[in-house]
Amino acid sequence: MDRKLRIGIIGTGGIANAHINEYKKFDDVEIVGGADIVPGKAKAFFEKHGIKGAQAFESAEELIKNVEMDGVSVCTYNTTHAEVTIPALEAGINVLCEKPMSFTLQQAVDMVKAQKKSGKILTIGFQPRYDYTRKYVDKIIQSGELGKIYYMQNGGGRRRGIPGGTFVKAEYAGYGCLGDIGCYEIDQMMNAVNYPKPLSVSAVATDYFGKNPKYWKDPENFNVDDFSAAFVRLEGGLTYVFREAWAMHADTLGDNLWLGTEGGIKIVTGFNGTKMESRVMLFKDVCGQQITSQVLPSYPFDAYEMGPHANEIWYWKVRDFCDCIKENRPAPVPGSQILYNQAICDGIYRSAKLGKEVYIDIPPID
To answer: Which CATH number does the domain housing residue 48 bear?
Structure first.
């Protein structure tokens, strides 16, 4: 492609700033339009970022109808991801959709159907995929060095970290901590083992902190989860224990751990709220001796070869989307894969509401 990529942004709230800041770094990209349902918001957004010539609209429909675009970032509320993404794909536009993929499993299925029919890219915004440490952990697990992975669990969470705004309103966000940071954890755990199909979920979700004026400023308007936990059964005899919190009386819910028949690996997270780097620990038996070792990421021999954006995960999330469009490559984080992530989120939500285990039935997408 000789000309510049023509990119649009739908939804010009907080997360859209992270997208446009990266697009502005690329000489081969021009921002040509955007939309937001709040009158004047898209126009003000472009003015703030010094983008001249971009057309601003008050609906995604108007933007898609009136502006020629190669790709679009969907940065709207979680509950509207599907209703915005599907028309864009149907119009022949490649889509980078923010996480979580959608709210319901059916919405995610409809998005994948639209992508397959259009032949365009649908990639989901999981930027931690580009972290060096995470990529190295994936490489070790997928090499088979740990044998058959039979159990995994994620920890993390925040001692205090409720984001506020539309994040705590179900009509916009759908989920609370599950959709905000929980889906990241699900992706990290599932991608390392090549996303096996989820079969069933038994979950709980609570709102003890968000509903308590001692801990949250506006409990009357808080109606999502601030803590979620689940026991997930996956295809191939793999068990996954999920935990996530926006607020808790602890520094962490634990480390991220994968257990295999020939070894184990865990990411030991730094104390919540500090800048400590995570550590990766490997557990193996070598010549009859139990060995515990720290794994260091493998960087290029010449550090300068990595370039100025070596581990800037947001940069690579947006850059990879652009390069896939230009080079006609498959989506870097394909919606067809993240469909399983959404199935787990949907299962956690349903199970917590019903108070019992639920089975996951993913409708056909062909």
So the answer is: 3.40.50.720
- Do residues 139 and 185 share a domain? yes
Say how many domains are in the chain. 2
Together in a domain, 149 and 100: no
Q: Has this prediction a pTM greater than 0.70?
A: yes
Query: Which alpha helices (H) appear in 67-104, and where do they start and end?
Result: 81-90
- Reported as a pLDDT band with limits 50, 70 and 90, residue 189 is very high
Would you say 273 and 158 are in contact if contact means Cβ atoms under 8 Å apart? yes
8-12, 260-264, 298-302: least confident range:
298-302
Whether 319 and 272 share a structural domain = no
What 3-state DSSP class applies to 275?
Answer: coil
Asked if pLDDT for residue 305 goes beyond 70, the answer is: no
Q: Rounded to whole angstroms, how far apart are CA atoms 72 and 8? A: 5
pLDDT of amino acid 307 = 64
What is the extent of the structural domain holding 208? 132-298+342-359
User: Quick one: 65 and 85 in the same domain?
Assistant: yes
Q: Are 54 and 115 members of one domain? A: yes
Write the pLDDT tens digit of every residue in 206-217.
Answer: 999 999 999 999
Q: In terms of domains, do 139 and 283 share one?
A: yes
Higher-pLDDT residue of 155 and 101 is 101
- Residue 178 and residue 274 share a domain: yes
CA dist., res. 261 & res. 196, Å (int): 18
Beta strands 238-245 and 149-153, pairing class:
parallel
pLDDT digits (tens, 9 = 90+) for 249-277: 998 999 999 999 999 999 987 644 444 56
Q: Exposed, middle or buried: residue 350 (CB in 10 Å: 0-12, 13-18, 19+)?
A: middle
The side-by-side arrangement of strands in the sheet containing 198-206 is 289-295, 279-286, 264-268, 256-260, 149-153, 238-245, 227-234, 198-206, 358-359
- Paired with 8 in beta bridges are 33, 72
